[in-house]
Design goal:
It catalyses: L-histidine = trans-urocanate + NH4(+). GO terms for molecular function: histidine ammonia-lyase activity. This is Histidine ammonia-lyase. Pathway: Amino-acid degradation; L-histidine degradation into L-glutamate; N-formimidoyl-L-glutamate from L-histidine: step 1/3. Helix 1 links the parallel strand 1 and strand 2. This protein has 2 domains: 195 residues, Fumarase C, Chain B, domain 1; 258 residues, Fumarase/aspartase (Central domain) (Fumarase C, Chain A, domain 2), CATH 1.20.200. The longest helix has 32 residues. It is elongated and about 90 Å long. It is mainly alpha-helical. The chain contains 20 helices and 9 strands.
Length: 513
């Protein structure tokens, strides 16, 4: 596996995913090594000076006016990390921790933080060795950096605290560092602050959410098309000339994909003629491109914010190219918090529309000839009745998760930090929402597949038929009631693994993003 270069150039979203999810190793570039050494020289000069410099020879936050004697400045940095590693709650996921490590490493390697090269190398070594510090759920207000989460990583860097090793086992940090051939860092001036004053947790989770949602919005186009087909809906509303009249890019793309998925469907063709007495489909069918498209365009905006943040250097104080060390407010997480909150809204709406389509397939009065709840023997069998209950429960939760975190602010640090972003909280709830959307779409996929099977002998289009065949490798077709929870889980895993999208890419034109 090739190394991802970490240095003066911004990381791409693909590079971030390669490291945090794919386990790709990192390598500090030669240019970055020179820049780190140069900025460290500036910090060492300031550390020896009588004039106080924030983060070098003063306290932090509300204690910024406290001058620290020369012989206590190294202890200042260690005390900072120990006191700030004050997280609580369950462990966050390893990929989130790796995101924190990678993105903080990228800032440290920028030559604008004043840390020593040995500190940069040790953090890179931890990442490459698969050492994952234990980071807890609560402790970041999304301002002054993701303080408690990043402090847990900095603590492990110094050989304190607990980590997960490459096998996932819980170990003392000192043991894991020793086995990886890494020397614990003895923090010097400015280094403790530089290790924790960033938006890295928020950003890492945004990058991962963007990747997940890009795939799930593609899946939503597929499940919507399958539902249109199963409910004897029309494909004429997806014609390009209609969507050209409202040229939102996402809408145009979703309409084109749904039209492609419905191509050559015997079921759609069976009711195209003059005998069809249906004038218009319900909104959950007819307006799917408009809703999915708006979600896609919202995602595009979030991806733009993520890319800008990946090009940013977040620390306070910052070491400028001319050697000046200046305080700033770039650690404030508002730009990330807003889009993390924003994405939860269209996500919930896409899920809500999918649930409405599922319910329509189960309702004898609205399904145009399908048996009640798609049951084999209605009354004896309940079919997919309770699968829709599960969908509805998840959608209700997604609506709650769409309530923004960023409108809240609790002042901290004796009112020095009197406005915070709550971006970490926005990111955490978005991750939960992404999982919920996957569940909702998996249930629509299962239901639409069963409904299409019940339309036999008419055959669905190649896109639907291929996905149904893939689904049937792990789930059963129509028949008497059986345990549905494993089938929902299997459908979720097909979506999560990328198998459904890979099949579509190989068989259907219309996938292009």
């Amino acid at each position: 596996m090739s190394h991802v270069p970490v240095g003066l150039k911004p990381l791409s979203r693909a590079q971030v995913l390669a490291v945090v999810r794919g386990g790709a190793p990192v390598e500090i570039t030669p240019e970055a090594r020179d820049a780190v050494a140069a900025s460290r020289a500036h910090i060492e000069a300031l550390a020896a000076a009588e004039t106080p410099t924030y983060g070098v020879s003063t306290g932090f936050g509300a204690l910024a006016t406290k001058h620290i004697p020369l012989d206590r400045r190294a202890a200042l940095q260690s005390s900072l990390i120990r006191s700030h590693a004050a997280g609580a709650g369950p462990e966050v996921e390893p990929e989130v921790v790796r995101g924190l490590m990678l993105l903080r490493l990228r800032t440290l390697a920028s030559g604008h933080t004043g840390v020593r090269l040995s500190t940069v190398d040790t953090l890179a070594g931890m990442l490459n060795a698969g050492i994952v510090p234990v980071v807890h759920e609560y402790g970041s207000l999304g301002c002054s950096g993701d303080l408690a989460p990043l402090s847990a990583i900095a603590l492990a860097l110094t050989g304190e605290g607990q980590v997960r090793d490459g096998s996932g086992a819980l170990r003392p940090a000192a043991e894991a560092l020793y086995e990886a051939g890494l020397e614990p860092v003895q923090l010097a001036e400015k280094e403790g602050l530089a290790l924790i004053n960033g938006t890295d947790g928020m950003l890492g989770m945004l990058v991962m959410a963007c990747a997940d949602l890009a795939e799930l919005f593609d899946i939503a186009d597929l499940t919507a098309a399958m539902s249109v087909e199963a409910l004897l809906g029309t494909d004429r509303v997806f014609a390009p000339e209609l969507h050209a009249l409202r040229p939102h890019p996402g809408q145009t793309l979703s309409a084109a994909r749904m039209a492609a998925f419905l191509k050559d469907s015997e079921i759609v063709a069976s009711h195209r003629g003059p005998d069809c007495n249906r004038v218009q489909d319900a909104y959950s069918l007819r307006c799917a491109p408009q809703v999915h498209g708006a979600a896609r365009d919202s995602l595009t905006h979030a991806e733009t914010v993520a890319e800008r943040e990946l090009a940013s250097v977040i620390d306070n104080p910052i070491v400028l190219a001319d050697g000046r060390v200046e305080s700033n407010g770039n650690f404030h997480g508002a730009p990330l918090a807003y889009v993390l909150d924003f994405l939860a809204i269209p996500l919930a709406d896409v899920a809500s529309m999918a649930e409405r389509r599922t319910d329509r397939m189960l309702d004898k009065a609205r399904s145009h000839g399908l048996p009640p709840f798609l049951a084999d023997d209605p009354g004896v069998d309940s079919g997919h009745m309770i699968a829709q209950y599960t969908q509805a429960a998840v959608v209700s939760e997604l609506k709650r998760l769409a309530v923004p975190a960023s409108v809240d602010s609790i002042p901290s640090s004796a009112m020095q930090e009197d406005h915070v972003s709550m971006g970490w909280s926005a990111a955490r709830k978005l991750r939960k929402a992404v999982d919920g959307l996957r569940t909702v779409l998996a249930i629509e996929l299962l239901t639409a597949a069963r409904a299409l099977d019940l339309r036999a002998p008419l055959r669905p289009g190649p896109a639907s038929a291929g996905v149904i065949a893939l689904l049937r490798e792990s789930t059963g077709g129509p028949g008497p009631d059986r345990h549905l929870a494993p089938e929902i889980a299997a459908a979720e895993e097909l979506i999560r693994s990328g198998a459904v999208l890979a099949h579509l890419e190989s068989t259907v034109d219309g996938r292009n993003r």
